[in-house]
Amino acid sequence: MYEHRREPLLPLGRFLWRLFWHALVSTGVVSLSLGIGVVGYHVTEQLSWLDALLNASMILTGMGPVNPMTTVAGKLFASAYALYSGVVFLAVTAIMMAPLAHRLLHRLHLPIEE
Questions:
Q1: Do residues 75 and 49 lie in contact, with contact meaning Cβ atoms separated by under 8 Å?
Q2: Domains contained in the chain, number
Q3: pLDDT tens for residues 89-107?
Q4: DSSP state of 71
Q5: How far is CA 98 from CA 15, 22, 94, 95, in A?
Q6: Where are the bilayer-spanning segments (predicted)?
């Protein structure tokens, strides 16, 4: 997927296309994670779909829950979802930063032409 250090730097157009694909994958991961949270809060706490979306969004962004959890299942789900959301945050950050970091490191390792 990425060019070897002996290969030339990827042209800007193809690099932007690579950034687009990484953003698309990140959007998919976040959307799937948000969907898991919404369904989980709706099922375990019987929250309305809108309240479940709000809680899942707040947990996924690291802000914390809005509604207090009242059931054992809801508390267990909320704690597991919070841990999962932390991992998703790190993964999405890595997915988005990978092309930028690779391009920078690739640029630094290109031979200097005189």
A1: no
A2: 1
A3: 999 999 999 999 988 888 8
A4: S
A5: 12, 8, 6, 5
A6: 20-41, 48-66, 78-101
Q: What is the pTM of this model?
A: 0.85
Full residue range of the structural domain in which residue 75 is found: 34-104
The per-residue pLDDT for range 44-101, each reduced to its tens digit, is 999 999 999 999 999 999 898 899 999 999 999 999 999 999 999 999 999 999 999 9
**Letter string b/e over residues 8-34, b meaning 16 or more CB atoms within 10 A of that residue's CB:** eebeeeeeeebeeebeeebeeebeebb
Residue with tokens 């290969």: 7
CATH of the domain at 98: 1.10.287
Sign (positive or negative) of CA dihedral 26, 54, 79, 73: negative
